[in-house]
Known about the structure:
The structure is a single chain. By secondary structure, the protein is α/β, with parallel strands linked by helices. The protein folds into two domains: 175 residues, Glutaconate Coenzyme A-transferase (3-Layer(aba) Sandwich); 239 residues, Glutaconate Coenzyme A-transferase (3-Layer(aba) Sandwich). Helix content is 26%, strand content 20%. Helix 13 packs antiparallel against helix 14. The longest helix has 16 residues. Bound molecules: coenzyme A (COA).
Amino acid sequence: MLEKFKSRIVSAEEAVKVIKSNDTVYLHANSAYPTALVNAMCARYKELENVKVTHLTTFHKAPYAVPEMAGHFTHVALFCAGNVRKAVNEGRADVYNVFLSEIGWLMELGRMPIDVCMLHLSPPDEHGYCSYGVSNEVSKTAAENAKIVIAQINPKMPRVLGDNFIHVSKLKYIVEVDEELLEVPMVDANASEEEKKIYQKIAEYISSLICDGATLQMGIGAIPDAVLPFLKEKKDLGIHTEMFSDGLIELIDLGVVNGEKKTFLPNKVVSSFVIGTKTVHDYIDNNPIIEFRSSKFVNDPVNIARNDNMISINSAIQVDLSGQVCSDSMGTRIFSGFGGQLDFVRGAMRSKGGRSILAFPATTKNDTISKIVPMLTPGSGVVTTRGDVQTIITEYGIADLYGKTLRERTKLLINIAHPKFREELEAKAREFKWLW
Ligand code: COA
């Protein structure tokens, strides 16, 4: 099929000539980052002014976000990952505060216009369809709404099934590459023995709330992946999640995850991207159980709620005694993004038998900082409001805040804080008249 579009095959240097000053350029995310195209774009920096570069999480170097690119490129983060965090917090890059489920709508409404969309795809099949591979998220919607789409195609990009394809005729230019995808292990390799024990304790509490037949979402961070080994004794689990990693494979292989009891898209692992190693990239290749769809669909709280017994598992940076959850910043310092946290909290809340879980170690920085605090640090953004919050878990237990009063929540949260901070938390709560 590529034969028919031979005239569109060009070098990366040629392809990126479509970018003009003042354009907005969208980049494919995660391990589908289009390295050759980005490098060629950055090599042109002297010819370009005021180009906005926007994308979700990537793990590559982000050469357009370094200080020398000022005036040529400005990054605008849809999720502030480690590679762009410095640029955002030094005031050289901007950031959207947006739910993952909404980004596609903003693109469709023309509120997030895209001039050039740069993708990293599998080669076209015999019908001319290229797969978005390891990462659909908002990239498919971006391509559908961009003025120009250019792509690097790579035989090493898995062909992942679902609503996860673009026809080769939609690509203005095609750049052929043959490169390994970046591997991003989710398991925290640097975790100490003590930290691992804490993750295990938290995972046991989470596991105790998951019934056979439940459908799971696991968010980003160390905890969601730590839960998976504790689910081996469960039966007939299903998956409806914005992302997953290597840890899920064993549960599918064991038959623990089979999707048979799912009430929405049964027998399918519904997701929109993976973050992981070659093991998971190979696993999802042409695998009929995997159903990749856009975040607009997967993260829509209405679709999430169509799964009975939907359990969402996410993490947080700080929680105040009333249950307000900050997950994307440390005070005014932006750390990550909304991602799909509230999408899944709300979807799980509306699911029959569903529950949203936010789990995290009670402290950080060697027990010097409590993550449960009387008040959020000034400048912190609330991702999950106290009206949405349900279940909070630390290594000290489970606080079920749903339907509880301010006083009841305060007590429950102090009970799962690290013991060394409980007295201080209680004193503050009394000062606020939240305890008496
Ligand atoms: N005060 C100061 N520092 C804090 C802190 C706090 N309250 N909480 C965390 N940190 C620091 C940690 O010490 C760690 O620092 P280090 O990198 O120097 O060791 C760093 O922040 C990361 O913390 P950690 O707890 O390891 O984070 P994580 O990788 O488990 O991710 C979130 C947790 C909340 C950041 C992550 O889940 C997130 O971004 N969530 C928002 C989006 C979301 O939930 N999406 C859902 C699906 S993708």
